[in-house]
């Protein structure tokens, strides 16, 4: 028990010490040293600490030591993401096993009725703001007996737009409670929250647990059409444990995963459009190193999740700010281990990369791209039944990404191959919407002669047989429909002349190898 002396000095009970000793804890981290004595005294705390610093044990110690089962929810922990809620709940359940406290994660994407049945027997609830509000509105969750309130990753919750939801939840908690706020960065919004909902809080800051000397940062500048080929080349050449690849959109995540798996690489996806059970399964396989070695994700995995032994972080799409970039690369170079952050720049990444480089603390070195063989890309299948392949029932490869970043979108021209890599600016949805097109605009339109989408020409002139081979299955000549064209004059349709000049109707997807350099290309002045 001598090796637990430093934990014992913090004021923890013998039973708690025995529990964490079995879990392999030997010495408290910096956030634990500074926080545990304060929370055991019942003080409110504002902690500046990143993911992986050990803050879960820090804030859980107070509630586990003081809560006794009484069939009421006595502690509420809010997290920004479902995965973090599950992770925190699992940790607290283990810390509290000697007291047999009931810990319940509550988040969306799963059956709410199952949660409703379990809440009455729960002592500690860990949840996301949206689903917590659902239960409060249904009156299936009562916060009148809450003695401990924790907000984990506060800055991330605000980034995701949960500010109003969080305040609404806090207003329903008793005023006599212990409040603990934890965040990687202390923002003005967090200061406002602290002044309004905490009482004389103790402020704690800790050093980053990421060793800058162990983290190497590089970037490659390549033609757009070679971004995926470079990623495959680097993954095959790299020697490491677990790899994370960050993308800007759900569509890009699915594109990368499908094509990596086609290259016989074990990749898995995590993004907001997936069912929660599938997200949990992919994350479990990645953490265990069995089944998934490459985790491709949106920023949902950049914060909160404590993923160990990540050796390489790839930014396939660059984030918009240096803070988001820092959170991404913070997945590697932990606990004294080496790590590398690799940024793959195409023309659409220059602006974001320039924003990132404004942070003088970041030292990102340019590396000349190697000679590459172009990797064949899986074509996206879009066979559909119904009108114009726009509305109706899809028969092709529809993934689980049903949100705004999903793969259905607009096409320009008739010679553009579907093997083109998705844009880093939101996939096919990056073109501004024309809200004047009426209800048929929901699936996009074509400004060329393609059969998919909407034609910008006269729809009544010759029907549809003069427009080239159809990519979908269409039933009948659309111009003969009695309920369509008579009520919608062709002049209301977007005309070819309004199409941005940057879109060339006969432009090829293999154009990128000869792409002229943008004059706005950021220079690496700190080589």
Major beta sheet, specifics?
A: 7 strands, parallel
Label the overall shape.
globular
Mean pLDDT score: 77
Unreliable segments (pLDDT under 50, ≥5 consecutive)?
383-419, 426-519
Ends distance = 51 Å
The CATH H-level superfamily of the domain at 2-205 is P-loop containing nucleotide triphosphate hydrolases
Helix proportion range: 25-40%
CATH architecture of the domain at 2-205: 3-Layer(aba) Sandwich
| Strand-residue proportion | 5-15%
Structural class: alpha/beta
How is the largest sheet built, in terms of strand order?
A: 3-4-2-5-6-1-7
Question: Could you explain the architecture of this structure?
Answer:
It is built from 15 helices and 16 strands. It is α/β, with parallel strands linked by helices. Helix 7 (129-138) packs across helix 9. The longest helix has 14 residues, at 82-95. The two termini are 51 Å apart. The model is unreliable at 383-419 and 426-519 (pLDDT under 50). It is 27% helix and 13% strand. Among the domains are: 2-205, Rossmann fold (3-Layer(aba) Sandwich); 212-366, P-loop containing nucleotide triphosphate hydrolases (Rossmann fold).
